[in-house]
Design brief:
single chain, mainly alpha, 18 helices
Length: 422
């Protein structure tokens, strides 16, 4: 066997790609931490070995690194005021570092659209497997088909850790089914349409209203960039559906939303209890806007004992959670990251055509839908966060490494940030 330097580099690149392909398939599956870790850390080791072989630092200059560094520093500083420093340190290591590692792995090791499409196809095949399993599991919970569809207590969760996690996963990946529909032809396009219908149905039977709101936003964005008149029709149709659906079905048994509520009744996860929780969190942030309670969702219930062991053990909103954990400065740093990513995708849309155009559109739909969904709960954690950063790394690889695109914004124009991508 040939073990020359060039052959080793070739084997390394192929192995890293296989790991990425396997990772996106296995990542959402519950109780697969060991396998998942192999597909994360093996590419990291090979990436380092590749740098040793080539005797150079293989790190692509990009405009996302600095926002990530700023956020990481602020998150690390929350150790100083954390209610449980040991837990916060564990979360920093297990959550944030892993997320950002995945981003840099994809960004620096994906070099052409063929690799991108192989990874996306593996991801979509995973949604097919999850959907088929979830479909059988869903209808096995209740023998009556119609009752199952109308009973919001009967939920689907595929192979994920739960129905909420499954809804976040679907919101994350559905935009890339749109991408394949728009770039495929003939029988392949028809198959992707069927896959979309399956995943839309599975999203419905998770019975997560926040996910449906996110889906509406994603569909609106899709038509805004593809066929603008349809975006307005989608908005009108959504408004009519909301008006027609009885309020007790729309609000899952609650007759009306009480925006003035301050009571977290029995600390259950209802609409009104959630509103009261958000208000409570906002008041606490106002009381100490720049002093966080420590990175990690469980810091909330550790600080506020009345929520410990209840459905309301964290703020049920990504942006509120980040703010109370890290302070206002943490929220600003996080918004800086999102601004940079959205700016990148919009720039990609303006400078691309065909396949790449629809890929950036899917990436834009993904990031906005993901965080709209997480405004109604916070699942920017674990496999959902890791999947987000895998797809983000993939999108930045297309922008910087594959298409050699670049942009300026107010920060880079003033010289505050690193040099442009490219």
């Amino acid at each position: 066997m040939d073990f020359s330097k060039n052959k080793q580099l070739e084997y390394i690149d192929k192995t890293i790609e296989v790991c990425f392909i396997c990772l996106v398939f296995i990542l959402p599956v519950a109780h697969a931490m060991t396998i998942r870790s192999i597909f994360i850390y093996l590419p990291a080791i090979l990436w380092v070995y590749k740098m040793i072989l080539k005797k150079e630092v293989l790190f692509i200059s990009n405009q996302i690194t600095l926002p990530l560094i700023i956020f990481s520093v602020i998150a690390a500083l929350s150790l100083l005021t954390a209610v449980n420093p040991g837990y916060t340190l564990h979360e920093l290591q297990g959550e944030m570092i892993t997320d950002f590692l995945l981003f840099f792995l994809l960004l620096n090791n994906v070099r052409n659209m063929k690799q991108v499409n192989r990874i996306i196809l593996s991801l979509l095949f995973g949604t097919l497997v999850q959907g088929i399993y979830g479909l059988f599991n869903y209808f096995s919970q209740n023998g009556n088909l119609l009752e199952s569809l109308l009973d919001y207590n009967v939920k689907a969760w595929g192979l994920t850790a739960g129905y909420i996690s499954y809804s976040v996963f679907l919101v994350t990946v559905i935009p890339f089914i749109f991408y394949k529909i728009m770039t495929a032809a003939g029988q392949k396009r028809f198959l992707f349409v069927l896959l979309l219908l399956l995943n839309l149905f599975m999203l419905y039977v998770t019975h997560q209203r926040g996910a449906l709101v996110a889906l509406f936003v994603q569909v609106f964005i899709f038509f805004w960039f593809v066929k603008r008149r349809m975006a307005y029709l989608v908005t009108v149709a959504a408004a009519l559906v909301i008006l027609i659906i009885p309020s007790n079905l729309l609000y899952h048994g609650t007759d009306v939303i009480d925006l003035k509520t301050e009571e977290t009744v029995n600390y259950e996860n209802t609409i009104n209890s959630r509103i009261a929780l958000w208000k409570f969190t906002a008041r606490e942030i106002a009381g100490h806007p720049f002093t966080g309670i420590g990175f990690g969702r469980h810091s909330f219930s550790a600080k506020y004992n009345q929520f410990r062991g209840t459905d309301l053990w964290h703020s049920l909103n990504t942006f509120l959670n980040i703010t109370i954990q890290l302070g206002i400065q943490g929220l600003l740093a996080f918004m800086f990251i999102l601004y940079r990513l959205i700016k990148t995708y919009v720039a990609g849309l303006k400078k691309s055509k065909g396949e790449v155009y629809y890929f950036f559109l899917a990436s834009l739909m993904c990031i906005i839908g993901f965080f709209v969904r997480n405004m109604f709960d916070d699942h920017y954690v674990d496999d959902n966060a890791q999947m987000f950063w895998v797809l983000t790394g993939l999108a930045l690889a297309v922008f910087i490494q594959i298409k050699k695109l670049a942009y300026n914004d107010i920060f880079s124009q003033t010289g505050f940030l690193s040099k442009k991508e490219g």
